[in-house]
Amino acid sequence: MLSRRWTPWEAAKRERYARHGSLDQDRADGVPSSNCSVEIDFRRVARPDLSLHAARMWLRGSDATVLARMNHDIETATAHLHSAGVDLLVYACTGGSMINGPGHDLALAARISEQAGGIPTITTTTAILAGLHRLGLERLVVLAPYQPDMTEILGAFLASPGFEVRHLAGRNHTSNREIGADRIEDIVAFAVENDRAEADGFFMSCTNWRAMAAAAKIEWLTGKPVVTANQATIWLAWQKLGLDATVPGYGRLLENCNPANSAHL
User: Fold this and answer.
1) Considering its fold, how many domains does the chain have in total?
2) 146 and 58 both lie in a single domain
3) What HEC string does the chain produce?
4) Taking Cα atoms as reference points, which of 221, 200, 228 lies closest to residue 131?
5) Domain limits for position 15
């Protein structure tokens, strides 16, 4: 369990936000135990009136079998986060929220929310689908850090709700720690070399892959929108919390993070 401590400077900013009529918000993540990227990405763009907490679920490796095993820890992680009295729960793993096919993300969110006494809950997969629709993307280059079996599962999942997967490629990393160690410049180069003229945008999977930090440069080099797992999860979490938290530098989705535009989410 990780919780955020406020510095005096941050506490003063929280007080200023409160005086201007905004409410402090607590958001909690259930994350794979070997994930070293998702909390960093959330904290790099979080407003000072947002309290972030995380509970870890055991994960070694990155294939479908270990992801299914990881989901056995959901109840424990949910109980820990529920005890913190948070406003929103986030299941922050792409593979774990889509390995059982279409609708698995919604069933997972309902399972977590029910155990947490009805606290609103989202998953990374739900956020990805919403983000792709928000940017109007239909024909995708789908990129992942996974080995071929998980990459194929991802491609099949995205094809099922009607997206056209025009190109699918993976980095073939064998462990989650290896995924998290991928250099940003290598992620950018991988995206550029896998661009396809017939695609109208990119989706880059995995909350432990540092694709969010690469998104803006990929958009600049290719001229196409990029949706990443962490970027989309942050975007939808901000919408659910009602935060007007536009964040430049991490792709188009976060550059228009205005809850007034998200009544249907």
Assistant:
1) 2
2) no
3) CEECCCCHHHHHHHHHHHHCCCCCEEEEEEEECCCCCHHHHHHHHCCCCEEEEEEEECCCCCCHHHHHHHHHHHHHHHHHHHCCCCCEEEECCCHHHCCCCCCHHHHHHHHHHHHCCCCCEEEHHHHHHHHHHHCCCCEEEEEECCCHHHHHHHHHHHHCCCCEEEEEEECCCCCHHHHHCCCHHHHHHHHHHCCCCCCCEEEECCCCCCCHHHHHHHHHHHCCCEEEHHHHHHHHHHHHCCCCCCCCCCCHHHHCCCHHHCCCC
4) 228
5) 2-127+231-261
pLDDT in tens, 4-58: 333 333 343 344 333 333 334 454 445 555 566 788 888 888 877 788 877 777 5
pTM of the prediction?
0.83
The CATH number given to whatever domain includes residue 100 is: 3.40.50.12500
